[in-house]
Design goal:
The chain has 188 residues and is mostly beta strands. 7% of the residues lie in helices and 50% in strands. Strands 1-2-3-4-5-6-7-8-9-10-11-12 form a 12-stranded antiparallel beta barrel. A 3-stranded antiparallel sheet has the order 13-14-15, with no helix packed on it. The termini are far apart. InterPro entries: Tubby-like_C.
């Protein structure tokens, strides 16, 4: 199982991010534009060849991205909205993303087999996401999906010093927190 390290998007707002291997070597480049319209991401090898890309197709609450691998469209992924933001489906690839948006731990499966896992790690005072990928051919698409999930989970980030509890009676997101003083607050 190959391990790659993706820099946290919030910590690294640069146009290009370097994806590292488990021994600290550079493996891929992640480039792209982030904004309200015409978002796109590309995974390139170190020579600059585009291996995979994600192009935004729709805008609004449920923005949609088309995934392209080796210049061929292979699937689409839609931003989660509603009751279960922790379960997502990548159509075309038949990948199911299951995880926790609060702590950013995800597992991706294809027909019951693990494709990759994603978890946050702190390496030399910088937050990275460790991607443990089972098949080398899936690495570029795994990097794209992990980057999109990382961008979408921003609003679910924990606030420091809060104790979170899942709640079905809270707001639409279903999470509430309790201050250390004991007063209950709802996170929007």
């Amino acid at each position: 199982m190959q391990k790659l390290y993706l820099p946290d998007h919030q910590a690294n707002e640069a146009a290009t991010s370097v994806i590292l291997t488990d021994n600290g070597r550079q493996r891929y480049l992640l480039t792209g534009k982030n904004g309200l319209r015409s978002n796109h991401l590309e995974v390139q090898n170190l020579q600059g060849t585009v291996l995979a890309a994600a192009h935004q197709l729709g805008w609004g609450l449920r923005s949609k991205y088309q995934l392209i691998n080796n210049q061929q469209p292979v699937g689409t992924i839609t931003k989660p909205f509603g009751i279960m933001p922790e379960v997502r489906y990548v159509s075309g690839l038949n990948w199911v993303i299951i995880g926790n948006a609060l702590n950013n731990h995800y597992r991706v499966f294809r027909t019951g087999r693990l494709v990759f896992m994603m978890q946050p790690m702190i390496l030399s005072d910088t937050t990275y996401y460790e991607l443990a990928i089972t098949n080398e051919a899936d690495e570029p698409l795994a990097i794209l999906i992990a980057t999109l999930v990382n961008r979408w989970q921003r609003k679910y980030r924990r606030l420091p010093g809060k104790l979170y509890k899942p709640s079905l009676n809270g707001p639409a997101l279903g999470y509430s927190y309790q201050l250390k003083t004991g007063a209950n607050r709802t996170r929007c």
